[in-house]
Structures are given as structure tokens and as C-alpha cells.
Design brief:
- The chain is an alpha/beta fold.
- Helix content is 25%, strand content 22%.
- The protein has 5 helices and 9 strands, in the order βαβαββαβαβββαβ.
- Strands 1, 2, 3, 4, 5, 6, 7, 8 and 9 form a 9-stranded mixed sheet that branches.
- The longest helix has 12 residues.
């Protein structure tokens, strides 16, 4: 895993450079890191980092039906989003296909970070992330991640609310 402390590393993917710039501007203490292997799923990321799958902050994008806005739910990697709970908070939801995700966020599925989106989404943070002292989120590319504390999410995504947005574990 490569630590990307150089503010403008030439080998850094464009999306990860955008995430790194947002993190640096916010004074976040941890720069993105590149993993040797892709981490398109929470399990792959957890395995690569040697952490619990719940410590992976998944960025799930939905499409709000009323205004076609992107809705970003940042959830714990070991949980599944309950769409009914999310809809009760933000309005009726529709599926967000790969083209919608790319157009609204500027990132491809499998590397969507919680920050640096092309268009500001409606954001909800899963309260289940608060179980951990340290979590990891995608950094704009399937090989890129960054470390943070759950409470950092609210600072980085403009005071997004923490909510119960997941199904009970099986």
C-alpha cells in the first residue's frame, strides 16, 4: 500500500487527486493510499487493509425521484441499506445506474468517495459507523482509500445527519 503524502503525485488517478485536494483543504490528517489490489467491495477493502468489514464506509448512491437528485448513503460495510428508511428521510427513491452515478458524482461505482462529488448530493451517514474508532472510505478509484474517524464524516460532508438507515443484521 502506497501512502500518498506528496500533494501532487503524478501516478495518482484523477479522481483520487480530487479527493486528496478536498481532504488537504479540510485539514484532514490522512492522505489517500493506493492499495495493491482493487477494493470494489467492502470485503475486498477490509481484506486488503486487515480491518473488519464494518470499518469500511460504503458510499451508496440512490436517485431521488422528485428532483432527480443524487442521495449518498454512507454506510458500514457489514450492513445493508434499508431503502424504506432512507426514503422516509429524503423522499421516494429510484435506482441509480452507473451512468447516473458517474454523471452526478464524477466517480465510477466501486470507487465513489464520500467527498469531492461533481454535484453536491443529499447525504445521510449510517449510525452503525459510530461503532468504530477508525474507518476507511473509498478515495475516488477502486484502488484508493483513506482513513478517518466516523465523526470526521460529518465535518467532511458538511454536517450530514447521522441516521438509522440500515436493516437489522441477519
Amino acid at each position: 500500500m502506497a501512502d500518498l503524502t506528496d500533494p501532487q503525485p503524478r501516478t495518482l488517478p484523477e479522481g483520487t487527486r480530487r479527493v486528496a485536494a478536498v481532504l488537504a483543504a479540510a485539514g484532514h490528517p490522512h492522505a489517500p493510499q493506493l492499495l495493491d489490489d482493487a477494493a470494489r467491495t467492502a470485503q475486498q477493502a477490509a481484506d486488503a487493509l486487515g480491518v473488519q468489514v464494518g470499518q469500511i464506509a460504503k458510499s451508496i448512491i440512490f436517485r431521488r425521484v422528485d428532483d432527480d437528485a443524487a442521495v449518498l448513503v454512507i454506510t458500514s460495510g457489514d450492513r445493508r441499506v434499508d431503502e424504506k428508511k432512507v426514503a422516509a428521510l429524503v423522499g421516494k427513491l429510484g435506482r441509480a445506474d452507473a451512468d447516473f452515478v458517474k454523471a452526478r458524482t464524477g466517480f465510477s461505482i466501486g470507487g465513489v468517495p464520500p467527498v469531492a462529488h461533481a454535484t453536491a448530493p443529499v447525504v445521510l451517514i449510517d449510525r452503525e459507523l459510530l461503532r468504530f474508532d477508525e474507518i476507511w472510505a473509498a478515495a475516488g478509484h477502486p484502488h484508493a482509500v483513506f482513513r478517518l474517524r466516523p465523526q470526521d464524516l460529518q465535518l467532511l460532508v458538511l454536517q450530514a445527519p447521522v441516521a438509522d438507515v440500515t436493516r437489522a443484521p441477519a
